[in-house]
Amino acid sequence: MVSPNLVKSLQAIIGEENVFTSEADRQCYSYDSAVLKATVPALVLRPTTTEQIGPIVKLCYDAGLAITVRGAGSNLSGGTVPDTTDSVVIATNGLQKIIEINEEDLYAVVEPGVVTAQFAKAVEAKGLFYPPDPGSMSVSTLAGNICENAGGLRGLKYGVTKDYVMGLEFYDYEGNLIKTGSRTVKCVTGFNLAGLMVASEGTMGVISKAILKLVPPPRASKALMAEFSDIADASEAVAKMIAAHVVPCTLELLDQNSLKYVEADQHIGLPVDAAAMLLIEVDGHPGQVADDAAIVEDVLKKCRARAVHVARDAAEKNKIWAARRNALPALARARPTCVLEDATVPRSQIPAMIRSLNEIAAKYKVEMGTFGHAGDGNLHPTILCDRRDAEEFARVEAAVDEIFDVALSLGGTLSGEHGIGTAKSKWVEKETTPGTILFSERMRRAVDPKGLFNARKITGYSHE
Is it true that domain 220-327 has CATH number 3.30.70.2190? Predict the structure, then answer.
């Protein structure tokens, strides 16, 4: 129960209009994009300056309130679902300033609630490039990307969010401001606390500012689309492209189910009779792009692609990528419930993983569409169902268990980019060790002695 005196103290810091107490307002912060039970928090706080974060964190922590930090809530593993009803959500979407875009030293300084796509557009207007492009980038926030270590379509060549974090400012449970990293390319002053905050899912503190690396944009690019009659041939083509020493900036796969649903939703002329489709883009110097595209086209044909289409202009290229970016929305609209998973395996194991996914779908009689970042082994098997059907959803949960068992047996990981949250915490020990869990919990106890920062997430730490 939140005391009236605490509410008044919080209102004095951030304003009455930024302390949400009504049931309707609090309901909006009770869930994320994962298929998990919602939990309505007792209070929602929306700071409008970064300096307000420290005092409100201290007040809430001293009062023993569980704290969940939320950007846009687009995460897919329960990371922004409040731990208990006796909790507070700190919404950072009121902190949307791009403080600096430095064109000489190639960095930017941003507040936590800046929307990823808006930031990328602002950077592009300055003639620079911020590569991380998670599928949720039109709504997701930069601090959320950092806390989940978000990936995206360009991860194969350009890396993921962690590769662009140069420095951070954040607040601890006492409201102390912590600074780590710098605006310089090299910085080894103290512990790498920025690295600790990346993928921490709100368990270590509240980010208030980020220094992000920028790069020059590629001078040219070319997109290709390849159709296959056998998904195994598409999987083979992925491995052989990399073996040919070509690293595309994007290398995506859609299976037949995904193609059918996207085409039914978008009507863009996709080959729905194909077993699979690969979407590839190469970029860089114009001469290199021409050479790489020729090698890619040759590999595709040798791997028995039944057709290869090369985009003639930007409009045609955008049409190709619309197919991939609309895969999840199209699948999600097909049934009442969409269970999107994040099984990631070494590239060489993609054929084995694809075979297993098909076998699992048949075994548990579930409808599954698979798409994802084939170039880095990050597949998104997506099960279409209705959670209200208890018998069907029990089969879905059994299928998900087996998906992760197979991914781990192939040398893979539970999550390439969606995070652990509560959705995957029960499997963490399978991938790591009991010692890993114990070490993580001891570390969390040091920075959060009461166990109030997103306590049930990742390792399920709670104060005893």
Answer: yes
